[in-house]
Amino acid sequence: MGGIMTNILTSLNKTIIAGVILTLCFLGYYFSLNNSFDIYFLQFIFRYIHVLAGIMWIGLLYYFNFVQIPNMPKIPDEQKPAIGKVIAPAALWYFRWAAMVTLISGLILGHLNGYLLSALKLGIVDSNSTNTAIGIGMWLAIIMWFNVWFVIWPNQKRALGIVEATAEEKVGSAKRAMLFSRTNTLLSIPMLFAMVSAQNIW
């Protein structure tokens, strides 16, 4: 048994597949209780996707801001290319696509739950405080998503040499990417509070 688990856990792909299989077992059990692919089932599925992608997105945002950026000055110059050429591009790929999946699944979830338009209007039309809270969280998340795709990623491409840029452009792009990444870190705190409060306070 130990050999099987070691074989699974030493491969990321096998680990993910095992996690998916285990999740499908839970899903099969839940489906056996309800035995219906109704709107509630879809809400459940998209909420799960939304949370899973959100963990990946915010987790990598915090990795960049709490681990990579503060510790880069401590890394010897000869070792820094390993971060810039290997680790950062891989992390940024998961980072931006996790942001995309989080946004899309969140909008779909809002539609399935019937509060999308009200939340986007901040609950003003129907005086719904829950939709005001979730709407604030949604707009903050949309701003964060925009920053990822249209500010952070284009600047990181120049800073990391993925696209051609002068040395001066690389320095400027790295600083802009860092500042907007910090902006997203700042926004993530009230964004997460708004999302959680919509479910537990109002």
Write structural notes for this entry.
- The chain has 202 residues and is an all-alpha fold.
- It contains 7 helices and no strands.
- The protein has helices at residues 2-9, 12-34, 39-71, 80-113, 116-120, 129-159, 167-200.
- The longest helix has 34 residues, at 80-113.
- The chain is flat and about 60 Å long.
- The model has no long low-confidence stretch (mean pLDDT 94).
Brief overview:
This protein has 202 residues and is an all-alpha fold. It has seven helices and no strands.
Helices and strands, with pairings:
Blueprint: H1 2-9, H2 12-34, H3 39-71, H4 80-113, H5 116-120, H6 129-159, H7 167-200
The number of domains is 2
- Helix percent band: over 70%
Number of helical elements:
7
Name the poorly predicted regions: none
Oligomer: single chain
Rg, rounded, reads 20 Å
* Mean pLDDT figure: 94
Work out the number of β strands.
Answer: 0
Structural class of the helix and strand makeup?
Answer: mainly alpha
The major pleated sheet works out as: none
Name the shape in a single word.
flat
* Proportion of beta-strand residues: under 5%
What letter string, H or E per element, gives the SSE order?
HHHHHHH
Measured distance between first and last alpha carbons: 48 Å
